[in-house]
Amino acid sequence: MRNPIPPSRRRGRRIALAAAALTVALSVTGCAATSTAPEPSGDAPETVEPGSIKLGIAYWDTRTYAFQLMLKGAEAVAAADPAIDLESAAPDAGDPSKLLPLFQAMSQTQTDGIVLQTLAADPFYRPVQQVTSAGTPVIAIDAPPPADAGVDLFITNDNVELGRMLAREILASVPEDASGQIIIGTNGPAVPPLMARVDGMIEVLAAERPGVEVVGPISTYGTSGSTQENFSAWDGIWRQYPNALAYLAPGAQDAVSLALVQQRNDVELLAGGMDLEPAAIEAVQDGYVAALVSPEHWLKGYISTKLLAAHAESGAEIPVGTWDTGGLVVNADNIDEVIARQASDAAMSEALAAVGDEQIANSADYIIE
């Protein structure tokens, strides 16, 4: 099997299955809290009373690390501006019927602006329309908002391009005249952003390696989406296609499971995935995953919250359209830098706040439609 990272990079650490999860579980059904982000690092406008800007972020669930990063970005803005009173709310597991009442309750108090991240837009149509009609701006991040509900800005990624980025990175280790199979699996077969990434992968694979057969996308979700089911699915895929040239996925849990398949079966696979869950980062560091593509979720929370704060404090206009925050390829060349960046809230803020500020200052360059 091909592996672009020498076996010598593998440091012998085992990735425990429990650590392979996308989630950090909380024991409550719903969660609402005032921000407790790091100490402020900037000066708030002197004319604005501390805590007078009422902002909120409502997101899909508290478990998934990608969503936690979005929250951390929002909290970084509140930490730097004492004028902001930021409330966050999410259920412990993705369920629109649980998120919706949290959003509605938040809209009663956080009337200067709300950031919304939901993977099920339709149930939010009327509640969001009521909020925006009442004068509270809503910015959607990560996944599309309900159509025609008064949400004028959607901050996300070009997910097709993220898929292209991963495919190109992996193909650097696949000869141009290669023949064989490349497997694509996904634990989110019904999640539009993930399937858009798959589309990008397939596009590049077909164009740049016409002699290679693309197998998939194969669902690795199972019946409940658990980490054990995901691992079992990938273990079965590997046994069915043990000689595949590469194994790709649009999410982090798949990447972690591919690392476990290699560990438990003592094989070397060329594997790639997405997102920056700690276990996925460790898999890159240890050489089990050749590359991840980070959607840079922290920036979504940061940019959206900072735009709402500026709108509330000074009347700054909120841009209209779809905002692409871009992505980052993570591989053996930059893994140590990424690990250091992700080590703490303060480190993320130090590394990424300037990136978000640059995008805000040049917003027209990031509006893609």
From TrEMBL:
<dbReference type="Pfam" id="PF13407">
    <property type="entry name" value="Peripla_BP_4"/>
</dbReference>
<dbReference type="InterPro" id="IPR028082">
    <property type="entry name" value="Peripla_BP_I"/>
</dbReference>
<feature type="signal peptide">
    <location>
        <begin position="1"/>
        <end position="32"/>
    </location>
</feature>
<dbReference type="InterPro" id="IPR025997">
    <property type="entry name" value="SBP_2_dom"/>
</dbReference>
<keyword id="KW-0732">Signal</keyword>
<dbReference type="GO" id="GO:0030246">
    <property type="term" value="F:carbohydrate binding"/>
</dbReference>
<protein>
    <submittedName>
        <fullName>Ribose transport system substrate-binding protein</fullName>
    </submittedName>
</protein>
<dbReference type="InterPro" id="IPR050555">
    <property type="entry name" value="Bact_Solute-Bind_Prot2"/>
</dbReference>
<comment type="similarity">
    <text>Belongs to the bacterial solute-binding protein 2 family.</text>
</comment>
<dbReference type="GO" id="GO:0030288">
    <property type="term" value="C:outer membrane-bounded periplasmic space"/>
</dbReference>
<feature type="domain" description="Periplasmic binding protein">
    <location>
        <begin position="67"/>
        <end position="313"/>
    </location>
</feature>
